[in-house]
Amino acid sequence: MSNEFLNPPNKVKDVSHSLLRMLEILSTQPKTIKELSQILELSPRQISRNIMRLEDRGYCVDKNMQNRYFIFGAENIRNRVFNEEEQELISKMLAIYAPFHPVYSAIKLKLKSATMDIPFAYQTKDLLKSKNYEVINYALKNRLRIKLRNYVSPFNPDMPEERLLEPLEFVEQHCQLIAYEVASRKEKVFKIDRMGKVELTNEATAGRAVKNTLIDPFGFSSTKQKIVKLRLSLLAKVLLEEDFPTAKPYLILKGEVWYFHGPYCSFLGIGRFILGLPGEVTVVYGPELKVFLTEQKKNFTF
């Protein structure tokens, strides 16, 4: 068999090995492309490609002021360093119950005793979420604007990569942020989980107060709410409590039947819940919601 048939597997193995070595290095100490090229014996072009491969796999590859690349959050994972915000949360909340707080995952990760040489991509994202929360919290306390980069908006994928915001208030157990968007001149709600990276600016906010922004139990916001009454099976009731804890005050037991009698801001959130449980939820009251659900049924394909 000729060498041309043996080379491809070896190349794949070499690429995987160099990618792993590069991940190990960038998780330990920032390096320039030239330094990585010398250490790994690869061309600068190959190094750049490997950086793109790491980003494609979900790692947050960042660059410092000296043009040295590093894996964001890797050092904190290795050394299990708690910042002041996390230390405060440990003392106040871990003794009770705080699973939805943005920094909870980062703290839980650092409390693990097992040695971790290379962080997983989702773990660095948890730390990025924690860092974003710190920046926003600082901006709120000091009335500064922030830059929000690469926010994931599934209902509007053409949104700009960078948005200038004036943070106003955390809501929904610190999982969402109400902020004034400078470009659109509108007050909007942003989910912490969907934020790419938050950066602090030196620009002062205008000192705005939160307007009449309402958030429903399904995570959607509006200036107005509609009321709906749903009949729930036991399965639907349990899943509603687990997936949407803020819906609990609106649950009513009549006889042996559970009902959700409460507000919603958008058809999307409550509609997703109902359509995800066929036969388990009945709309007792909510004529507009019924029309929306009927239209959505037409879009089902299998």
List the SSEs and their pairings.
Blueprint: H1 7-28, H2 33-40, H3 44-56, E1 61-63, E2 69-71, H4 74-79, H5 84-94, H6 104-110, H7 121-142, E3 144-149, E4 162-171, E5 176-181, E6 186-191, E7 197-204, E8 214-215, E9 221-222, E10 226-232, H8 234-243, E11 251-254, E12 257-264, H9 267-275, E13 281-285, H10 287-297
Antiparallel strand pairs: 1-2, 3-4, 3-7, 4-5, 5-6, 8-9, 10-12, 10-13, 11-12
Helix pairs in contact: 1-3, 2-3, 6-7, 9-10
Salient structural properties:
4-stranded antiparallel beta sheet; SH3 type barrels; 5-stranded antiparallel beta sheet; disordered N terminus; 13 strands; single chain; 10 helices; Arc Repressor Mutant, subunit A; 39% helix; globular; 302 residues; alpha+beta
Q: Which CATH class of the largest domain applies here?
A: Mainly Beta
Largest β sheet strand count, sense and barrel closure = 5 strands, antiparallel
In total, how many domains does the architecture comprise? 3
Structural class: alpha+beta
CATH superfamily of the largest domain: SH3 Domains
Number of helices, counting only DSSP H or I runs of 4 residues or more: 10
